[in-house]
Amino acid sequence: MDSSFTKLDENLNLDPFVRLKAQNIHNTIRDDLTKAGLIAGSFLQGSFARKTMLKPLKDVDIVCLLPAYMWELLRGPDGPGKAMESFKAPVAERWPGVQFDIGDEPSGKALRVTLPDVDFTIDLVPAFDQEGSYVLIGDRFEGTWEPSNTRIQLKKVSDRESGHRRPVRAPGARGQGTDQERRGARVRLRHRGGVPGIRRDRTAGSGQGRNRAVPRARQGGGEGSGPGAGG
Question: CA within 20 to 30 Å of 94's CA: 122, 127, 183, 197, which one?
Fold first, then answer.
């Protein structure tokens, strides 16, 4: 019986070679976009990031955090589409045979990248960093930037896998909410004179930290789903 379950597990789990290939590709794309000055950071989301992807691998989702100064340039309805278009040149320079948004109807939240001789796709999700570990994810079809807690969900999965536990605190300890209170907390954005919450940005200029506008989260959104979140 044990050997049967072991065989089933081997048949379902992603091949280590495929995982390594995917890691090399997504790291290269993230490095190229960073060097081009198009993103200030990035992280993976979806089943590949959670290490729950079963074979065959279909896609790898990369949340591409745009520099904060780009918000004023991309905050309009055409902003998400413009951000995705900007990703194409660095990718095409490294992979001349690359194709974008081919196959099934593309998602509004991700630029689908199909590389030569690669069986899986890379989905590039444009986003802006937000207070409280939230991000704003762009939707080129809806022309909106919607809040998502995908990064928070990934951290919860990581903490659970590592066996991380919060220290036990005395009931009613000052300055500490209960787990239920923390889970029920809503994202709060600071506003200064009508300008969305401010975060320290060290991604541009001489390296000196400068306050820059960070996009305002709209009501709604949430779990960070969609191909940008799927996979």
Answer: 127
Domain count of the fold of the chain: 1
The sign of the dihedral angle between the CA atoms of 30, 34, 37, 41 is positive
Structure token pair of residue 38? 């198009």
72-107 residue pLDDT tens: 999 999 999 999 999 999 999 999 999 999 998 989
- Measured CA to CA in angstroms, residue 47 lies from 22, 52, 125, 160, 175 at distances of 13, 5, 15, 15, 35
Q: Model-level pTM? A: 0.66
DSSP run (H or E) holding 100 = strand 99-100
Domain, as residue range, for 161: 2-166+179-213
CATH number at residue 199: 3.30.460.10
In angstroms, the CA 74 to CA 94 distance is: 26
